[in-house]
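S1.2 Input.
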Amino acid sequence: MESIDLGPKSDGTPRKFIPIVPASEPVLSDSSEEGGWGDLYQAHQKIYPRSVQGIFAKWRWGFVFLTQLIFYGLPWLEWGQRQAVLFDLGARRFYIFGIVLYPQDFIYLTGLLVISAFSLFLFTAIAGRLWCGFACPQTVYSEIFLWIERKVEGDRTARMRLDSQSMSLEKLVKKWYKHVLWLVFSIWTGFTFVGYFTPIRELGMAFFLGIMSSWEVFWVLFYGFATYGNAGFMREQVCKYMCPYARFQSAMFDKDTLIVTYDAERGEPRGSRSKKADLGTLQLGACVDCTLCVQVCPTGIDIRQGLQYECIGCGACADVCDTVMDKVGYARGLVKYSTQHALENKWTTSQTIRHIFRPRVLIYTGILLLVVSLLFGSLLTRKSFKVDVVRDRASLARIVSGGKIENVYRLQIMNVAEKSQHFKVTAEGLHDLKVLTDADDLVVASTQSRWVSVRLQVPFDAAMPGSYPVKFFIETTGHDDHEHEKLEEKSVFLIPR
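S1.3 Output.
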């Protein structure tokens, strides 16, 4: 096997050589087989990513810790006497710290989706697939599963050697041990996911007692095996073939987008050489053709062939290339985050950054800030209760004792506050309109809803037959004036012929 001679260290001791492993070529299936389908697809070749250290690797692992700390820790946090984040589908309530959302608050989900979309547009326009390379669950869990694999089976060379050898006791033990760890982690992930929809402490107790419901068991296993399959087996296949973002990302890129780039003008022609070799004499570029940039790539591409849709922008190739450049005594940055215009025009860092903040980025930023402001402004100023008015379909209008005309309504009062509230209902819209309710003092418990029957009555000669608009006023009756709130809801009053 060839290697790069890095020369002796400063103290005279020899350095370790960097092995040169040629980039593996894609293996195509034999088209001569019966049916002739071999030329229509490329057979999958397992990728063995090499571990790497560097600034981007630190950022990637930082996001791994951050995202998983939030995901696994959030369900265990308490807010008052309840779980801090809980999506209670049975009760049709979403609890997010001090916020209680009902199905009527669907507009907030719409706003959240708009924010997510414009955030994706903004980050992609600035620096490409940042989400894919650092925070996407597929990337995060693939990193975790790879870490487990390295701990059990060894580094890249050891894993390749283990897979190529025939079955033995050592191979059987390592493979089973790895898969057991993967499955335990996956089931834990599925359990945590279900813990966002069922109180996780109750779910944990039900798990240990063996009394989990069939749906809870199904979703724990479904999400667990999805994690096990995607992160343990499919990995880069999800990014390359299943994720739609890989296909439409080019529509959001331009020549001022920061992407992982290879400086071909500086690196070519590539070739191996001794550390002490004179590049001018050898007529070689800075690339030593060690193929380490290919070996560390989680999707198995060669960044030296230019930007490819499979690139997830993780920066692993930049980290390992900087390491090689340090060892051979060349300047860093042969592979780096830059823009196509910056490479073509040889811009400085300040010039590159200045061109990144172009009109489309400013427009995305402005829209994103506007939507975020509106969403949070609405959340901060919303009332502590909601009301829906529904006419009683069984009795639209009727004549009652005393010769009065009566319409019956049902009001759903939803208390989104973390305390019980008292309410009073009044109405206006017709002369001598009278309001009758089930009780004079309507109490709705903390974060609960209550249906209230409300009857409106008017004298028989109050108006001509027809439909008349009326307004309901629902207000809190707390003793604190600062907590007094009032809502207005519209409906109609029918007077029969």
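S1.4 Remarks. The longest strand covers residues 404-415.
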